[in-house]
Specification:
single chain, 295 residues, alpha+beta, Aminopeptidase, 2 domains, 9 helices, 12 strands, 32% helix, elongated
């Protein structure tokens, strides 16, 4: 089969949106795209989009970007039919050829038959991601923290301190200073009071960001909160700070009228999963990471 794989053009966007919505309709909490939302996401997340076409007809697309771990494939979609596997193979081939980092990874539902497709191409399962949820029905007592630690909300003008703590705790640039203003714009009524911090030795040593789960709430007509990012500096771990701040954030969201809270954590982050389970969180969905180191 002769396929042409190329970079997408703006006039392809309606076709790409139909492809993605068709491919992922019915998947876990999928919210359908429209052209403007997809166009904005391409820009904001620095996505690269390739399309596969035959005789001028677009048969599939792949959406990926580059991050510290390598090239990450977010979506792979193709029209159903006899050519589907050939289209998928051609698109992934193109991403691998262009992978400057020499590494490519993606994520797939833990029970998806698509794992077989990726395994056949040499991708290996390396951990996974949990989406965890908890219902909110009351204010809970906060776990105790050491003397000298103050739990409070972020104050106006502390954006830089928050960014320094989060990025230091993660070990890479997880936040930028414009994130607070961005969250205010995208998740009203979010403001600094929705960011929960632990202060010790004159500095912010732990933080949990809470906000409305806006996109989910609008589409599903829900009242769900969201937590993340969350971090504690290495030298302050094991002191109940993350538990106390997470609980504080849950209470805050309950008082704001939320009836549940959502977050994501790595399957292999056993301390985080243990902490969240103790606070009542349950795994709502599970993805597996698949990784390939190119020759």
């Amino acid at each position: 089969m002769s396929l042409n794989v190329r970079v997408f053009h703006s006039e392809d966007l309606p076709v790409l949106v139909r492809l993605l919505n068709g491919e992922f309709s019915g998947s876990y909490e999928f919210i359908p795209y429209d052209v403007e939302v997809f166009r904005r996401e391409i820009v904001e997340r620095n996505f690269r989009v390739l399309v596969a076409e035959k005789d001028g007809e677009v048969l599939g697309c792949v959406v990926y970007n580059r991050n510290p771990r390598g090239e990450e494939i977010h979506w792979l979609a193709a029209l159903s039919g006899n050519f589907r596997k050939a289209v998928e193979e051609a698109l992934v081939d193109a991403v691998e050829r262009n992978a400057e980092s020499g590494e490519v990874f993606t994520s797939v539902d833990a029970d998806s038959p698509k794992i077989g497709f990726w395994s056949s191409r040499g991708y290996k399962i390396e951990g996974g991601l949990y989406h965890m949820l908890v219902k909110l029905d009351s204010v809970k007592p906060l776990p105790k923290v050491p003397e000298g630690v103050t739990l409070r909300s972020l104050m106006c003008g502390e954006d830089k301190k928050l960014v320094e703590t989060v990025n230091s705790g993660y070990g890479f640039e997880r936040l930028r200073e414009d994130h607070i203003s961005k969250w205010k714009s995208e998740h009203p009524p979010f403001d600094e009071s929705w960011v929960h911090v632990a202060e010790a030795d004159g500095k912010i040593v732990s933080a949990v960001v809470s906000r409305p789960d806006t996109e989910y709430n609008v589409f599903f007509k829900a009242k769900r909160g969201y937590l993340g990012p969350a971090v504690t500096l290495p030298e302050y771990r094991g002191k109940n700070l993350a538990s106390a701040l997470t609980c504080r954030a849950m209470n805050f969201l309950y008082e704001k009228g939320m009836d549940s809270v959502s977050l994501y954590t790595l399957e292999q982050n056993t301390p985080s999963v243990t902490l969240l389970t103790k606070l009542g969180f349950k795994v709502a969905h599970h993805w597996k990471f698949l990784h390939k180191k190119l020759s």
